[in-house]
């Protein structure tokens, strides 16, 4: 049976949709910050904007299934960290929505959207211990550019920065 998915652009009023995906993806938040996601974590996904960017540069989308249930979150910042490079801050599917090709389809859509928007590459960070995500993005053609230190929820990490050239 073919499943139908669509996206909704989120703003602060839609925090419940983001929170539902974050809560369903508890294993990611336990890895990232040693605690389940909170409403404030979900709100940060929607509202936190990198220095030098505006709310018009950031796009947060909920992926909804045919029953309007949130099954994924995508966070993208255009022309960050430089003009022509788009940053994927989050591409998160709930565990029930994984393993069926949806992540690959979403990524292809992001890639086409970025290309249409003038991007020459995509970049993202992956927690060094998140082997599944590393494998997923490497399979899509990303290459590791560097490793940085970062702290999330008080937990320190090594974050691998990946880049994919799209032009």
UniProtKB/TrEMBL annotation:
Gene3D superfamilies: 3.40.630.30. Residues 15-165 form the N-acetyltransferase domain. InterPro entries: Acyl_CoA_acyltransferase, GNAT_dom. It comes from the Bacteria. Pfam families: Acetyltransf_1. PANTHER family: N-ACETYLTRANSFERASE, N-ACETYLTRANSFERASE DOMAIN-CONTAINING PROTEIN. This is GNAT family acetyltransferase. It comes from Listeria seeligeri.
């Amino acid at each position: 049976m073919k499943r139908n998915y669509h996206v909704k652009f989120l703003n602060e009023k839609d925090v419940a949709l983001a929170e539902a995906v974050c809560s369903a993806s508890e294993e990611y938040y336990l890895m990232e910050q040693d605690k389940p996601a909170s409403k404030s974590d979900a709100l940060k996904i929607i509202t936190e904007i990198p220095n030098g960017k505006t709310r018009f540069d950031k796009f947060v989308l909920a992926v909804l299934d045919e029953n309007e249930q949130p099954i994924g979150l995508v966070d993208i910042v255009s022309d960050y960290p430089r003009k022509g490079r788009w940053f994927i801050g989050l591409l998160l599917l709930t565990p029930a929505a994984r393993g069926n090709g949806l992540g690959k389809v979403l990524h292809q859509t992001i890639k086409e959207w970025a290309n249409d928007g003038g991007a020459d590459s995509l970049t993202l960070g992956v927690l060094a211990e998140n082997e599944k995500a590393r494998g997923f993005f490497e399979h899509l053609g990303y290459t590791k550019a560097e490793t940085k230190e970062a702290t999330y929820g008080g937990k320190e990490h090594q974050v691998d920065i990946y880049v994919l050239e799209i032009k």
